[in-house]
Amino acid sequence: MSQRGAERSVMSEPFDCDSCKESLYDRKYIQVNDVPHCIPCYDRLYANTCQECKELIEHNSRELYYEDRHYHEHCFRCSRCSRSLADEPFTCQEDALVCNDCYCNEFSTKCVACGKTVMPGSKRLEYGGCAWHEECFVCCGCEQPIGAQSFIPDKDEYYCVPCYEGRFAPRCAHCKQILVQGGVTYRDEPWHKECFLCTGCKVQLAGQPFTTQGEDPYCVKCFSNLYAQKCSACNKPITGFGEGKYISFEERQWHQPCFKCSECSVSLVGAGFFPDGTKILCKSCNAK
């Protein structure tokens, strides 16, 4: 901001305006580069035009300027509320001067919690296109400010991690503790991997084949040893895993690859056979 040149006192000898050539005797004048000008000529030649009212800013007016634009002091006002900006912070919005309060009310982000303006330079939090004052972004559970902590959104509500886990996180069907990540589902219930164990040998079952007896899970080995039928040929358990297909006849079962003629070892799968005591025979061997 500036105020132009000093007015000079009256001269006691003949002295003419450089522009209109009228005598400056007993008149005020302003000198520009050591050249004297009467006041009207000075204003006409050198005065700036006010950006707001488009009138000349005369020599005896206080002049304010901003980015090569000049204003009368009384014209240097907020375009919204008309507050004087001579000693106020302001900004320029589409060539119009706007005080800081009006700019914030009109253009700044509003806090979705309290509805008030989030002032430039103040601490704020942003998420999903919305903004909050730091003190307004609170957990819906404990109502404490979340700040820089991790949080979990749930629809239009936000929770700190402890509150969310306490309210919504699944709990292990075995130990009843919160299941934070990973885990397995058994009978539509969540389990920690380390809690989902074979009922027999207690080995972890996550990631490996298992079966059940009643409601109890078993690894293949334990289930085979405890509950599986034995193959009449090899006497090994028929588990339903691996070579899972089997043949059943009366009280006996065979692994499909074990269902062979007891004499010539030809496969009897899909073929007729003849029982002979503990043996089973193909048609040819039975006819001998």
3D shape = rod-shaped
Report the structural category: alpha+beta
Computed over alpha carbons, the radius of gyration is 48 Å
Could you give the order of the helices and strands? EEHEEEEHEEEEHEEEEHEEEEEEH
Q: What is the residue-averaged pLDDT? A: 83
- For the terminal residues, how far apart are their CA atoms? 126 Å
Largest sheet geometry? 2 strands, antiparallel
Number of helices: 5
The main sheet orders its strands as 1-2
Question: Would you count the extended β strands for me?
Answer: 20
Into which percent range does the helicity of residues fall? 10-25%
Indicate the low-confidence ranges by residue numbers. 1-12
Strand residue content: 25-35%
Question: What labels describe this entry?
Answer:
about 290 residues; two-stranded antiparallel ribbon; rod-shaped; disordered N terminus; 20 strands
